Amino acid sequence: HCIFSIKALLRRQTSCMLNEQSLKQLNRMTSCYVVHEAPVRRVAIFGGTHGNELSGIFLVKHWQENGAEIQRTGLEVRPFITNPRAVKKCTRYIDCDLNRVFDPDNLGRHMIEDIPYEVRRAQEINHIFGPKDSDDAYDLIFDLHNTTSNMGGTLILENSRNNFTIQMFHYIKNALAPECCPVFLIEHPNLKYATARSIAKHPVGVEVGPQPQGVLRADILDKMRKIIKHGLDFVHIFNEGKEFPPCTIEIYKIMEKVDYPRNKNGEITAVIHPSLQINIYC
Predict the structure, then answer these.
(1) Alpha-carbon span 169 to 159, nearest angstrom
(2) Most exposed: 15, 52, 59, 75, by fewest CB within 10 Å?
(3) Is 145 labelled as part of a ligand binding site?
(4) Is 50 annotated as a binding-site member?
(5) What are the sequence ranges of the domains in the chain?
(6) What is the CATH number of domain 4-277?
(7) Residue 20 bears catalytic tag
(8) pTM recorded for the entire structure
(9) What integer best gives the mean pLDDT of the chain?
(10) Alpha-carbon separation of residue 281 from 25, 171, 217, 254, 271 (angstroms)
(11) pLDDT digits (tens, 9 = 90+) for 115-148
(12) pLDDT band at 190 (very low <50, low <70, confident <90, very high)
């Protein structure tokens, strides 16, 4: 059983805060020494976790029909529609948000008749790609999402100590340069996110926008497609034994939520200034 090395671990450095839209540039992450990681052999690409976010749905269905461009030597790559009922109705979800129910309580619930559809589906997905937090879980899951926000092609990091994912993000960012590819950290000291991708050893969220719900934009789809291509390229060369040098990536994190100004009746009394309206990261 081969073990390949990457340069990883983190040295945190304080950096500047961002604008009033409540996204802050948190820090820079710098890898410091060699960390040995097992090869990645099984990869899933999720589309339709939210049934009205069409880029991932379109790509997954395309790859299910013709997956040549996502295949890499020595790698099993499985495109998968996570919430088919919501996809069919072009709605975010049927009973509850599928991307919030991959927690121990919901995954362990008894399969009774009135169980929410998404909880039942989460258990099915966990059975196929997990079990979560087990050695048998898939190595890597890309979960494809769209947003109405002008986030560009954003990579979502769930664990600031996941050396493999940090190196992958660094590779993807360089491959896409000079196009911006921000990294958004959703790590919380007290909470474990119950996302669909959290089943995997290395969960990767891909959030691309702006795109209205229920709409497919060619430029947004192409951006998502390129991110997956470069991510799979990284896995391939990583599995071949390449050692990646120390790297630094900028990350963003929500530091606070700022409400609109309101009058005594609780009604909003202001709008976002045009200079801030579409500037998510700057």
Answers:
(1) 12
(2) 15
(3) yes
(4) yes
(5) 4-277
(6) 3.40.630.10
(7) no
(8) 0.86
(9) 87
(10) 8, 20, 22, 11, 19
(11) 999 999 999 999 999 999 999 999 999 999 999 9
(12) confident
